[in-house]
Amino acid sequence: MLSFMNSLPGAVAQGIIWGIMAIGVYLTFKILDVADLTVDGSFGTGGAVLVICVTGGVPVGLAVLFAFAAGCLAGLITGVLHTKFGIPAILAGILTQLSLYSINLRIMGGSANAPLNVTKYTVLVSSRNVISALLVGLIFSVVIIIALYWFFGTELGHSLRATGCNESMARANGINTNSNKIIGIVISNGIVALSGALMAQYQGFADINMGRGAIVIGLAAVIIGEVIFGKIFKNFALRLFAAVCGGIIYYVVITLVLKLGLNANDLKMFSAIVVAIFLAIPFWKRKIDDRKIKPVVEEV
Length: 300
Prior knowledge:
By secondary structure, the chain is mainly alpha-helical. It has 11 helices and 2 strands, in the order ααααβααααβααα. It has a single domain (2-299), classed as Orthogonal Bundle (ABC transporter involved in vitamin B12 uptake, BtuC). It has a two-stranded antiparallel ribbon. It is globular. The relative contact order is 0.19.
């Protein structure tokens, strides 16, 4: 337990970074109602672009923007494949994710791992200064949430919501749903890549497999945040913040079970089980509510 308490600040810092990634997943999963698997590739793309840019002499702030732009480009490819080529969203994401594996290798010069010496280069977050990483992560989270809250309050933002809520009705009202899907997927993957850029700085390297399973972690954070804070956080900005909280809770739980002796090789399986359970909770609750309502209806 003492070891867990000592590692708790680091777990929270990483949870915030993964929570930023969960915001990107929230946009496609909850707003657009699209299953986008591009994030497993775009997360690593953000990390790879950040490391190569910083080690190449680019200021870290500008490198983060380049990483965000690279993620947006990945999202654009998925969006075009889905809307212009008629490929189902989930398959379009898989195709982009698959191609990003080779692209990320090329970005890192053919190496599966690109180190970032945090003592030699200036970085925004680092595991060597967890408190600073916590603060920077929170600042990024708040800025992203404020920006998205403003954006989804605009006419374009409302049309994106309408597209995800009822695509047929949105199209009947003259909304270009295909363009909205592309915009939503682009923004989502840009945020995911930004999260990958922060993670590469925090851990001190970019890896070809750093994004593997990112969609599972993102979904876990979104679902955990919704189940725990759904009845409390009604405002859109707070719902986004709930996704960040879900990322923190997820990573703290992961750290705890690892300290309790879970084999690290079983971590992906444990993550899948956690997501499955939290996805099933709303279904079970509806089943229970229906059983409570049914006898009342029969009596009437």
